[in-house]
Amino acid sequence: MSAGPALGDLVAADPGAWLRRAGTWDGVSRALSDRAAELERSAPESWSGADADAAALARAEQVRRLRADAGTASRAAQVLGTHAGEVLDAQRRLVVAALAVHPQFVVDLERGTLCAGPAAHPPGVWRLPATVARFGADLVRLSTAVADAVGAATRSDHATAAALDALRPAPAAVPRPVAPAAAPPAGADAGAVRSWWTGLPGADREQLLHTRPGLVGGLDGVPVAVRDRANRVLLDAELSRLRARAALLDRAGDTAGADRARRASAGLETTRRRLDGGDAYLLRLERGDTGGRLVLAVGDPERAAHVLTHVPGTTAGWGTVPGDLARVEATRAAARAAAPDGAVAAVLWTGYDAPPDLLAAADPAAARAAAGDLRSFQDGLRAGQAGPVHLTVVGHSYGSTVLGNAARGGGLAADDVVFVGSPGTGAGHASELGTAPGHVWATTARHDPIGRVPGVEVFATSRGLAPTGLLHGPDPAAPAFGARVFGSAPGSALPRPDDPATPNDESAFAAAHGGYWDPGSPSLSTLGRIVAGAPVPP
Fold first, then answer.
1. Which of 295, 356, 365, 530 is least enclosed by beta carbons within 10 angstroms?
2. Considering Cα of 254, then 43, then 231, then 235, what sign does the dihedral take?
3. CA-CA-CA-CA dihedral for 233, 237, 240, 244, to nearest 10
4. What gap in Å lies between CA 227 and CA 218, rounded to an integer?
5. What is the dihedral of CA 452, 453, 459, 461, to 10 degrees?
6. What φ, ψ does residue 293 adopt, rounded to 5°?
7. Residue 387 — left, alpha, or beta (φ > 0 → left; ψ -120 to 50 → alpha)?
8. Rounded to the nearest 10 degrees, how much is the dihedral formed by the CA atoms of 114, 119, 125, 128?
9. Residue 211 belongs to what H/E stretch?
10. Does 475 score more than 60 pLDDT?
11. Residue 314 in 3-state DSSP?
């Protein structure tokens, strides 16, 4: 009835037909929603790698489309149900008006008019009892009621047609093929990637961003804002996958596996909340062999005058984001207090597969494998800056071993390197780290048990028992190493009640190993001054 109903259309209309169509669309909506939920629960228990990432992204996109279509079907059901009710109401008003007048009125259904007439009328004429002579006023009232009812039906008809038209999907654009140049040259460094990206046509950049977010989000040298957009797409997909995985493992009775999935999910939720809070950028997100790789910047590293990169250690991954991010935020706050202009950005760099436990941390292989990725990331920070920038890398625990391996022999874009609670850097002396004299720093708390870890050669020679012999080489906080050593709070030798105001868990074993960022700690103040390029008192 898109042209507007006549009186005959209104009388002959069947509102039940629209109600039945509304019920059909409601059933479609529920079926699509159920299918989306089923897909979310169907994530494989163990599958990693590029194909797994692509499959997870495709599954998340399919879930999104199913839910969008379910919403469209639900709205169609609501529109049709509303229209059925409005037409039924118009018919009711017509009947009530007709019954209220005297017999003998005639309603011509084809012409949509009222008249008085004899007892007999041709087919298609509805006889209403009354005589025009005695009830002229009733005729006027009935005419008005009919006009109002037909008008209401007409308005409902037009509104329903417009609402249903608005639910039609827009014609799908034919995807333009990605140009062969829409991939960086093999082995390109961060500077070359930057040049490649800026040289692409804008349409190619947008298409890559939407069709290959995993590629764009992981490329050092691509602008920070672009990487952030790409990785937020991956973040949504991973959160959906982890929730489904936790539910699946719960049903399978794998409590430990479900708990790991929930911890990873909680870490990504923390990431999302920080991103939603503003002034933060997600620069990398991908599954790893252990805890998951993630790079999150607080503040824009392409516009800040001072940029910190914080490398966490053993067990680091998605599940440790809350504590690691709290340390990054604390360092940034201390640096902003020390920087004249306060222009400081801080990056949580978990861009490697950290050892999952202390036994695995005895092996330097993970640190050696991560060294190239850390160098590439730092190169990207330098390439993204239009002017001079002061770069500092802080390695904590096994993260300091990663930092040492990245810095050995030079080539790491860092003006200052800092080793905190280090089990060794892989270097024999600060001079091997390719950093200017006086810009290699180290601290180890008195009660941090890392300072008493024996060297790897303890069973072969006596050298491992020497005070400076740690698991991965000489202690960078020992005077002989050549770093500038700064003080830390001693920490506690024994566990104590946890202080919720600190990023550290004081009730944990070896709590002193994580206390360097506690409020009021001299190490936190010094870290802030180093990151800000401010003088550090002897």
1. 365
2. negative
3. -170
4. 7
5. -60
6. -100, 140
7. beta
8. 50
9. helix 202-211
10. yes
11. coil
Q: Is 536 exposed, middle or buried (0-12, 13-18, 19+ CB in 10 A)?
A: middle
Query: Would you call 251 exposed, middle or buried from its count of C-beta atoms within 10 A (0-12, 13-18, 19+)?
Result: exposed
pTM of the model: 0.66
**In angstroms, what CA-CA distances link 92 with 11, 401, 522?**
10, 82, 82
Q: What confidence tens digit (pLDDT) does each residue in 224-240 have?
A: 999 999 999 899 889 98
> Which of residues 501 and 405 earns the better pLDDT score?
405
Phi-psi region of 536 (alpha: psi -120 to 50; beta: other; left: phi over 0): beta
Residue-wise pLDDT for 105-141, tens only, equals 555 544 545 555 544 444 444 444 444 444 566 666 7
Polymer length in residues for the chain: 538
Q: pLDDT tens for residues 32-71?
A: 878 877 776 776 655 655 555 566 667 777 877 887 787 8
**Per residue, what are the HEC states of 316-344?**
CCHHHHHHHHHHHHHHHHHHHHHCCCCCE
Q: Quick one: tokens of 382? A: 């330098």
Tokens of 92: 């009711």
Cα–Cα distance, 12 to 144 (Å, whole number): 20
Running DSSP on this structure, what letter comes out for residue 449? G
Number of Cβ within a 10 Å radius of residue 315: 18
Residue 491 falls in which region: left (phi positive, over 0), alpha (psi -120 to 50) or beta:
left
Residue 449, both tokens: 């048990």
> Cβ(505)–Cβ(498) under 8 Å?
yes
Rounded to the nearest integer, the mean pLDDT of the chain is: 81
Q: Report residue 430 as tokens.
A: 């600060």
Residue 161's Cβ-count burial label (10 Å; 0-12, 13-18, 19+) is middle
Dist CA 165 CA 159 (whole Å): 10
User: Using CA atoms, how far apart are residues 369 and 3, in angstroms rounded to an integer?
Assistant: 71
Residues 417 and 407: beta-carbon distance below 8 Å: yes
Q: What is the pLDDT of residue 178?
A: 47
> What are 279's two structure tokens?
């002034």
Give burial (CB, 10 Å; 0-12/13-18/19+) of 201.
exposed
